[in-house]
Amino acid sequence: MDLIHRLKPKRLRPGDTLGIVAPASPGDRELAMAGIHWLEEIDFQVRPGLSVEQTLGYLSGTDEVRAADINAMFASPEIDGIICLRGGYGTMRLLELLDYDLIRAHPKVFVGYSDITALLLSISQRTGLVTFHGPMVASDMGKGVSDYTRDSFFRAVSGFEPPGPVTNPPFTLPPAFITPGAAQGCLTGGNLSLIAATLGTPYEIDTCGKILFLEDVGEAPYRIDRMLTHLLLAGKLQAAAGIVVDIFAGCDAESEPPSFTVQEVLEDRLYKLNIPVLYNLYFGHTADKVTLPIGVMAVLDSQAGGLEIMETAISD
């Protein structure tokens, strides 16, 4: 991405029209409608894409329909930003079907997480567009959004100032450094499973000199170990300037044979990198989540207390 001119999308304002796409699995209809209603209540117009109403096994329509939905939302002058319905599975199947030249020519806010990681990274790295690892319509907005999640989302996609320090939700444990130190670089990252799955393809993540953030859900510690080891063998963790890890919700073993904890796996796999590593932030599969813009400058500093996003992710 460093060789591509970086693009910042237009900031979202009340009254703007948001396109809703379902690039992965189909969503629960009631949650989808509740999420759309929430967006309308906060003064956005909403236009669901064709994929939102489709189901094809574990996919929300054919690959061609889902990819065409994304391309059409970027192309349409009536759409100001795009938010994904939910994750699940299916976005890697779309990477060769996206029109990256079209997306580059029509930069817009694009938001999602989990399986959407493949799209966030491929769009960011192939077009230079800042993308957003943040809440989705059915997965989050349809279930009710906390002040923490809402405020972070709007700071990222609508704020006039840099989002600033990333703090945890009220009444939760603060983040802690596995390895102290200081680093600066552009943010990149997302779901660990998706990042590992794209290694060895033209769409693998570029971590060189970046602040890499990682999250996942429901993975046993040995599977997290395997994926981190995969990234180590590929040189991706060593290339990063710093690493930020979320709480890895539901990943600690409960009834398995003897196991390491997630924190023990992280300490074992990441401590010897000699770069700052911060653990226990909220930006993944949790009810409260911070929105992280991919492609903007951030600082990770144990002396200053954590992660700080240093520049705005949007343009006027």
Automatic annotation (TrEMBL):
Belongs to the peptidase S66 family. The keyword Hydrolase applies. GO terms for biological process: proteolysis. Keywords: Carboxypeptidase, Hydrolase, Protease, Serine protease. This is Ld-carboxypeptidase. The keyword Ubl conjugation does not apply. Residues 19-134 form the LD-carboxypeptidase N-terminal domain. Residues 184-300 form the LD-carboxypeptidase C-terminal domain. The lineage of its organism: Bacteria, Bacillati, Bacillota, Negativicutes, Veillonellales. The active site is at 114 (nucleophile), 215 (charge relay system), 285 (charge relay system). PANTHER family: MURAMOYLTETRAPEPTIDE CARBOXYPEPTIDASE (PTHR30237), MUREIN TETRAPEPTIDE CARBOXYPEPTIDASE (PTHR30237:SF2). GO terms for molecular function: carboxypeptidase activity; serine-type peptidase activity. It comes from the Bacteria. It holds the Pfam family Peptidase_S66C.
